[in-house]
Amino acid sequence: MPMLIYPTPRLLLIRVMACFGSCTPIKYSRTSKNMFKTIARSLLLIATFTLCQAALAHDTSKRPLFFFLLIHDDVKETSNERLAEDYFVWLIKDLESFTGRRVHLQFVRNVPDVTDFQYKNENNDQNYAAWRSEINQYLIDQNLPQNGTSKYLLLTQDKLTASTLGFATRNGHTGIASLETFTAPAHELGHMLGGTHELAEVIYKGGWWCETNLVATRQAVRANCYFYSDKNKQKIASNLSEFP
């Protein structure tokens, strides 16, 4: 597999009517009318609750996505909450909206030979092979899964090279992403979930151009869209359908 480098509730209205034989209009008192209104509201609440529960059951029936985020020792941000807010909350919202799966984050720090990995290397192929060797040994030691819904991403403070913000393989289980741009982690995770550069888009939105998460080369003059293109969403969802 070639390595991919990232350069710098609807409203439900139900009406039931039944009449047997001849129908005679019935007059209701104010008290009766209020009682029927109360009953109707209660029935609507019950129906809504049932529908919501069914939807929730549907959403959680699929296997969740697990992102293990290995924080390199050189990362200056010490708060996992701030990292989540800046780099992942919007990503989770987007992924959950089109995959129908919950997304879980696990931050991992201070792991010798893993979070102190020497990631600055001009040879990206060599760098990726060395990283994959380290992370695979870590997964074996910790008895962690290697499957289509578990991904392991090393987050670094700096770029890997002067022109490389991260790398991963398509449908792979691991990669590295620099925190230098807000979309680099989403970019590499997108590749690991099956997304491609070719299906990414630059979109005119809100008076300016923005890049979807998997645009091949980041242009500082353009904004971030903070979502995947529609075609990449379809690609990722299709790929994940193999892991119900």
Automatic annotation (TrEMBL):
Q: Which domain of life is it from?
A: Bacteria
What is the official name of this protein in its record?
Answer: Ribosomal protein S8
Lineage, uppermost ranks: Bacteria, Pseudomonadati, Pseudomonadota, Gammaproteobacteria, Pseudomonadales
